[in-house]
Each structure stands twice: as structure tokens, then as C-alpha cells.
Specification:
Blueprint lengths: L1 E5 L11 H15 L3 E7 L4 H5 L2 E11 L2 E10 L8 E5 L14 H17 L7 E5 L5 H8 L11 E5 L28 E2 L2 E2 L1 H8 L2 E4 L2 H7 L7 H6 L4 E3 L26 H15 L8 E8 L8 H11 L3 E8 L1 H9 L6 E5 L3 H10 L2 E4 L9 H7 L3 E5 L2 H6 L10 E3 L4 H16 L1 H12 L5 H15 L2
Parallel strand pairs: 1-2, 1-6, 2-5, 6-7, 7-10, 10-11, 12-13, 12-15, 13-14, 15-16, 16-17
Antiparallel strand pairs: 3-4, 4-5, 8-9
The structure holds alpha-D-glucopyranose.
The site of alpha-D-glucopyranose (GLC) has 14 residues, from helix 1.
């Protein structure tokens, strides 16, 4: 089987969030199962593009409405990723120093059209096209409806929803940007009076997956307007839990952390990483260290962080450390927290620092209101850091509470009171030294690598193969 993943992000080429980690890892695990999986992403103006070599393998132009744009397909040379990467270079639209912005409609349409135009030239077509999120959501529609792509019609398509909050909406007056199709079927593009790429993909893809089973169930109740569509299409929908890249996220070999460690050396290994972090961020290394890593947005509960942290720091003798950026108001509130050697933050993102956070922290906070899967709790477990999570979506599917014979702290719902209670429970757990240290060893051995889930995807692909 030859599978092409089409995505806006792929680690380490371009990363904004977890989508990149998934697309950068899953193909490798599929390869182990003898499925030849490769990736198509846009060519961005970033460090990766500048520091790596590419070979032009195709060149043409696309028509977007009445305008023509040159494009090239660049193959990444000496790919160390384990799979082939094809970058779609549309210099005038895609080659920017950002991944997402306000001009996404035209940019991602250009990406999708250029990709499909290029696919038309293949002697041997891929067995299946796997699209991710709304940025590539018009591909299943165009493959099944646009006259131009008639020869791609019988190739099965899979859509994976990483986050249904964002749907890529644009007004109908831009419909002429989409290559001509039988206009009787324009309804396939529509949801609630707009063109909705995510809805179009849910309608047109052969199968729809979400990144955890619980998230699939939750979407039928709450999907930013798409609930009834998902209910209607439920027969072709399935939740498949994400995994993590066991090689990139391995505390025994991780070159980015201060001291590597295994389950048997975890206590001293984590201590060395914690010491470095506490020195860098002016915190007391003898107190339990709670961290947050991620985007500062409402979905992650970030609007409550300043109140939660202030309350938790008043009630417990702990330290809190944060790494992330996002909502400017939240950033400002976080800077105002009285630090008193027990709180600090790094506003921004730094992949290396994130690894040290996982290695050196005692607890990771994930009070998400929405969490389709969440990868941070799995990275944390791998590095012996106990997760404190709101039990929804993928968090519910991956973390079991210590009081239910599990290994994490779960709370039901997100409020200042509920999260600070969970922090106090965690702090008490920390003082039960023997039990807490046993837990570190236990969680490091839980296998949330892609091994299981990659198989589920392969099963899904096989069921669609003619
Ligand atoms: C999105 C989701 C996150 C998920 C990731 C990878 O970023 O918000 O929960 O883990 O995609 O699928």
C-alpha cells in the first residue's frame, strides 16, 4: 500500500501544535507495518527550508479563480525522517514565515489544488489519501466532485480530525476558487451558510477518524456546530488514539535534556533536570514542581491560570513553571503573578526547553476544556512526570486516577476550585514518598507509542482497499 498524508504541519519541518508531531511520527510506524507512507506539506519560509536540501521534481502552475500561480514540488533530500517528504512550493502564497494567518483560504486552497494537479501526473496513483484537519479538507470534495480530478475519484480518502473547533470557513462568494464541479452538489461544501472545509471533508471522505475514541463521542454533543453532521455520518467515523514517537521522546537517549535516565535511574535523573530548571527559573528545587506546556488559549483552560496558580500557591508549598504563548491578556496576567521564588514562566515556545520541562517536573497540568487527544500527558508519562488532567477527550482515554488504581490525578470539569483541589491532591500524593516514587517508575513503562494505533490505521486502510 502507498499512502500519502497531506497536512499543513509535519515535525520537524513545520510545527505549530500536536498535528505536526502526529504527521511526523505516524508514517514511520506505518512503514514498520509494511505500509509505504509519505507526506506532502507546504514549503514554508522557515529554518528547516533554509537548512535542508530539496530537489525539484515537478513544476507547473495552478489556476485559483481567475489567477495563475507557479508552483513546484520539492522532494526533501537525505530525509532523516524515515519517510519521503514532498513540499509544495507556491512562492507567492505559501512561502511565508508563518504556517497559519488570515490569508489561509487562498493559501491552503493553492496547496490542495497543486497537490492534486501533481497527483494527476502519477503513473501509479497512491492506494489512499490521508488528509488532516480543515486545511486539507477540500481534497476529498475535489477528488470526488471536480471534473478535473475525475481520474482520482476511486482513490479512497481518510480524514483525521485533530481539532474540530477550527473548520476553515469562508463565504460562498469565493466558491470560484475551487476547480469547477457539478454545481448541483454545492451543498456538499456548505454548512450553516458558509463553505466549511471540515464539514465538506466529513461528508466526502470515505472514512473519518478522530484522535481519540472519547473525542469522537464528545463531538456528537459538542463540535462547534458540526454535532448533527457527525451523528449523521457516524457509520463511517471511528476514534483512534494518537501515539507518541518513542524514539524522539525517550529519556534514556534524549540529547536535549540535562541528564538522561531510565525507569531505574529516574529518581536521580529527574532530580538533575529539576535542579537545572529551578536554577534557571529561580525556583526552590526542594518543592514539588508543577508545570504547564502549551498554547495559552481557552481550550487549554489558560484564562483561569492566573487565578488557579495564585490560589494553589497560597494553599500549597509548591512551585509552578509555565512554557507557552497565546492570548495576550492571559500572557499579561501570568506575568503579574507574585513570583516569590515559587512561580516563573517562559512566554514563547522552545522545543528543547519543553523536553527539559518534561524531564525535570514532578507534575504536568492539563486542565483542558477540549482535548481531542493531547500528547503532552503521554510525553510526561514517558519522562516520569505525573499528569493532572481534566477527564475529557484523549485525556480521559490515557490517564487513570490514583484512587482508581491508576497513576494520575483526574478532575471532572474545569474551574478554579476543581483545578486547585487537584493540585492539592497531587501535593499530598508527592509527600507519600514511597508511593510517589513507585509511580514514577510505573508511568515510565506505560506504552503509548504508535505501535498499537498505527496498526489500527492500517486495518482501516485495508478495509478500504479495492
Ligand atoms: C490537536 C489537538 C490535540 C491533539 C493534536 C494531535 O492539537 O488539540 O489534542 O493531541 O492535535 O492530534
Amino acid at each position: 500500500m502507498n499512502i500519502l498524508h497531506i497536512s499543513a504541519e509535519c515535525f520537524p519541518i513545520a510545527k505549530v501544535g500536536g498535528l505536526a508531531d502526529v504527521v511526523g511520527a505516524l508514517p514511520n510506524y506505518q512503514k514498520k507495518l509494511r505500509v509505504n507512507s509519505n507526506v506532502v506539506i507546504p514549503y514554508y519560509n522557515n529554518d528547516f527550508s533554509k537548512k535542508n536540501d530539496f530537489k525539484e521534481i515537478y513544476k507547473s502552475d495552478i489556476k485559483l479563480g481567475t489567477d495563475y500561480f507557479d508552483f513546484r514540488i520539492l522532494k526533501l533530500l537525505n530525509s532523516k525522517l524515515g519517510f519521503d517528504v514532498f513540499c509544495v512550493d507556491v512562492p507567492k502564497l505559501l512561502y511565508k514565515d508563518y504556517v497559519y494567518s488570515t490569508d489561509d483560504t487562498e493559501r491552503f486552497l493553492a496547496f490542495q489544488i497543486a497537490t492534486l494537479d501533481w497527483l494527476l501526473t502519477f503513473d501509479e496513483k497512491p492506494t489512499l489519501i490521508h488528509t488532516h484537519d480543515h486545511h486539507t479538507g477540500l481534497i476529498p470534495f475535489m477528488m470526488s466532485q471536480s471534473h478535473k480530478y475525475e481520474s482520482l475519484k476511486n482513490i479512497p480518502t481518510v480524514l483525521t480530525i485533530h481539532n474540530a473547533q477550527y473548520q476553515g470557513w469562508f463565504p460562498h462568494d469565493k466558491v470560484s476558487l475551487i476547480p469547477p464541479f457539478n454545481f448541483r452538489n454545492v451543498g456538499l461544501l456548505d454548512w450553516g451558510g458558509n463553505i466549511n472545509p471540515l464539514a465538506a471533508a466529513i461528508k466526502c471522505a470515505w472514512r473519518v477518524t478522530t484522535v481519540s475514541p472519547s473525542y469522537m463521542e464528545e463531538l456528537k454533543q459538542n463540535a462547534n456546530g458540526l454535532e448533527s453532521l457527525l451523528l449523521h455520518e457516524r457509520a463511517k467515523c471511528i476514534g483512534i488514539l494518537n501515539g507518541i514517537d518513542w524514539n524522539v521522546w525517550n529519556p534514556e537517549t534524549d540529547k536535549t535534556i540535562i541528564k538522561t535516565f531510565s525507569a531505574s535511574t529516574a529518581i536521580s535523573g529527574k532530580k538533575a533536570n529539576k535542579k537545572w530548571l529551578c536554577k534557571k527559573f529561580n525556583l526552590d528545587e526542594n518543592k514539588p514542581l508543577f508545570c504547564f506546556i502549551g498554547r495559552l488559549v481557552g481550550e487549554k483552560g489558560a484564562d483561569l491560570f492566573s487565578s488557579i496558580f495564585t490560589k494553589a500557591l497560597k494553599e500549597n508549598d509548591i512551585s509552578i513553571l509555565l512554557l507557552g504563548s497565546g492570548n495576550k491578556e492571559t500572557e499579561a496576567q501570568l506575568k503579574e503573578i507574585d513570583n516569590n521564588k515559587s512561580y516563573n514562566s517562559f512566554i514563547g515556545y522552545d522545543e528543547k526547553l519543553a523536553h527539559i520541562f518534561y524531564a525535570g517536573s514532578d507534575f504536568i497540568l492539563m486542565p483542558s476544556r477540549v482535548e481531542p487527544c493531547g500528547l503532552n500527558q503521554m510525553y510526561a508519562l514517558r519522562y516520569g512526570t505525573t499528569p493532572i488532567v481534566n477527564a475529557i477527550g484523549g485525556l480521559k482515554d490515557t490517564v487513570i486516577d490514583i484512587d482508581d488504581n491508576g497513576y494520575g490525578i483526574c478532575h471532572d470539569g474545569v474551574s478554579i476550585q476543581k483545578v486547585s483541589n487537584a493540585i492539592s491532591r497531587a501535593n499530598n500524593f508527592y509527600t507519600e514518598k514511597v508511593r510517589y516514587e513507585q509511580n514514577i517508575k510505573k508511568i515510565m513503562k506505560i506504552d503509548y507509542s504508535w505501535n498499537n494505533s498505527a496498526q489500527e490505521y492500517v486495518k482501516l486502510y485495508q478495509s478500504l482497499k479495492k
